[in-house]
Please model this.
Amino acid sequence: MDKFVSSWYNDQSLPESYIFPPHERPGKLLVPRCNTVPVIDLSDTRTNLVHQILKASQEFGLFQVVNHGVPPNIMSETMSLFHKFFELPAEDKASLTVYTNDPKRCKLVTSTLDYDREKIHLWRDVLRHPCHPDCIEFWPRKPLRYREVVAACSIEAKKLGLQILELLCEGIGIEHGYFEHELTEDLLLGANHYPPCPDPSLTLGIPKHFDPDILTILLQEHISGLQVLKDGEWIGVRPIPNAFVVNIGYILQVISNNKLKGAEHRVVTNSSDHRISVVFCMNPAGNSNIEPAKSVVTATNPPLCRGFQFKEFVDNFYSMEGDADLALQPFK
Ligand code: OGA
Ligand code: NI
Model:
C-alpha cells in the first residue's frame, strides 16, 4: 500500500486499522454546524474585546476571529499552496518522510509520528515543521514559493496570536508582555490533509485532544470537520471566510491556573471533500519554566501544579499517548 492516505484513499474501503472503538466513533449522528462558537470582531473597541475574548476562552476555550488585519491574499495563497503540496506526486514528498529526531526538520506522515506503534490510525496526512527562520532551509522546496508564502503567513499568525494573548493577559490580570518571548518562542506549523473517507462514521481525522501548547491559530476553508467539546456535547466550528480559529492550549490553561479553559476538540471526516487545515501552534521554548502565573495565584486559588520545564511536559504528553491531564499529573 502506498504510504500516504492522500494517495490511496480513493480505491479502498476503510481499512480495519482506521476503525475507532465504538465509544470514540463519531457515529451517524450529524452534529449541526452551529452558530454558538463565538465569533469575535477584532476591530471592536479594546474594552469589548478583552471582555469577549475572556468570556469565549472561559466558556469554550475556542473562538473565531474576523477583521484581524491579516491580508486575505496571504490566507488564500497559503491554503492553495497546501492543496498543491498534498497533490504533489509521492516521490516529491518522499524526502520529508525520512525518520529523523532532528527537531528542526520537516516531517510528513500519515496519522501521527507514532504510526508504527499506534493501534488505530487517523484519517489524515500531516506535515509539521518549525517556523523559526533558522529552520527555513529545511522547508519543502515544492510547490514553488512554499518558503515565501509560508513565512509570510507564519509571521502574521504569530502577530495575531500575540495580540490575542495580550488581550487575555489584560482580561485575567497577567502582566503585559508575559507571553512575548520564551513562552511563544517556537512557532510550529501543522498542515493537515483529510481526504474524502469511505466511512466517516467509523473513523476520525483527529480524536479528542487538547493542543499541548499556549495558543493555536488555525486556518481552514469552507469544509467543516473541526468540533469542540462544550458541556459534554460536540459542536461544529462553522467555517467563515477569512476567519482564523483560535484555541486555548493546555499550557495556557495551566499558566492561567484554570482561569482559562483549554479547548478539547476533534476532527471528523467526510465522504465527499478534501479538507485542509493549517495550524500554527505557539509553543514555549523547550527549557522554559511553566507555572501558574504568580499574578493569578491567590490564597483562595492556589497553584494547580508546581513549575516544570515545557519539554518535560511534552515528553510526558507523548508517552501518555496525547493525554494532557495525565501528562500534567507528575507536577501536581
Ligand atoms: C490539530 C487540530 C484541527 C483541524 O492539528 O491539532 O486540532 O481542523 N486540527 O484540522
Ligand atoms: Ni488540535
Summary: Residues 209, 211, 265 surround nickel (II) ion (ligand 2) (CB under 6 Å).
